[in-house]
Amino acid sequence: MRRQTSVYQQRLNAALNHIRENLTGDLSLSTLAGVAGFSPFHFHRIFKALMNETVNECVTRLRLERAAALLRASKISITHAALECGFESVSSFSRAFKKQYGLAARTWDRHSPLKNSKNGQVLSGFPRYTLENLSELANDPAMRVTIRTLPAQRLAYIRVHRAYSQGHLVAEAYERLIHWYCARGGNLKNTTLYGMSQDDPEITPLELCRFDWCLKVPADWQADDEVSVLDFPECRVASIHCVGNIFQEDKALQFLFRYWLPRSRYQPANLPGMEIYRRQPCELGWETYDMDCAIPIMAL
User: Fold this and answer.
1) Most buried among 110, 117, 280, 292, by the most CB within 10 A?
2) How far is CA 286 from the centre of its chain?
């Protein structure tokens, strides 16, 4: 039964990756069913059962979240954001935005978290820095931003659902991925570990947030059981070297997204935010981390 569930999850991962990579393309039920290898009739039901939302709800939500990310991180117009993210018109985008977040896109200040009564709970314990707070970090050497290019690479990954509402699932998935990699002869000294946040908990309902543990693998490695694979494209990233606990990581990410990015010559690329680990979390006891907090970027 677990083997069958894992195959289903691999196919759904392929469909979700296709949606993210083709927000302006044909994301009809029949197209996505073909990507996942199911008939449209069965795909609709399987998707709803495993993802807790319909295919159409997921497509609309991911388009909205991409548009919100662009609006928050740059000065582009609502029209530009709507069309770049696959909406047929500004009016259709505006209706979807108001329905999802409970306010009009034109009245959003582009800084405040997008929340409404349907969007789960706010992450507790994490401070919300003001722009004035973040501006004071601009000259802090610990917040120095580095821009570099990551090469195209093949990644093996385990996707964790409900990652922010059930944190223990994240650590358990990490252990399973490391075991899988080493059992196939992989050497941790010859790979890179990535944590990739597929969703923004300030925008996405917590129960729908996904997190991927990824390891760089040889080009001929294939998916197996719950482990999926993808060919991740070359991309430029802006990163901050972060050594500390999760609160230090959160501060770095808030600085990158909310302060540095809107004042830079870049906008976020349509790729997930990353934790690029310099040391394995298990080496440091899961309380202190040594990583680069990174966001994929593209020129404005």
Assistant:
1) 292
2) 21
Please give the residue that has the higher pLDDT: either 77 or 127.
Answer: 77
Distance CA 184, CA 204 (A): 35
Res 276: pLDDT: 98
Q: What is the DSSP letter of 137?
A: T
Q: Tokens 């992450």 identify what position?
A: 123
Same domain membership, residue 174 and residue 295: yes
d(CA 163, CA 157): 14
Domain tally, the chain: 2
3-class state of residue 258 by DSSP: helix
Residues found in the chain: 300
Last-in-domain residue among 52, 81, 104: 104
User: Last residue of a domain, which of 81, 104, 127?
Assistant: 104
Q: Spell out a b/e string for 148-159, using b for 16 or more CB atoms within 10 Å of the CB, else e.
A: eebeebbbbbbb
Residue 128 domain-assigned (yes or no): no
How many whole angstroms separate alpha carbon 216 and alpha carbon 143?
27
pLDDT for the residue numbered 118: 41
Cα–Cα distance list, 89 to 85, 238, 294 (Å): 10, 32, 32
Same structural domain for residues 275 and 176? yes
pLDDT digits (tens, 9 = 90+) for 138-181: 999 999 999 999 999 999 999 998 887 787 899 999 999 999 99
Determine contact, residues 174/156, Cβ cutoff 8 Å: no
pLDDT of residue 244: 92
**Rounded CA gap, 16 and 19, in Å?**
5
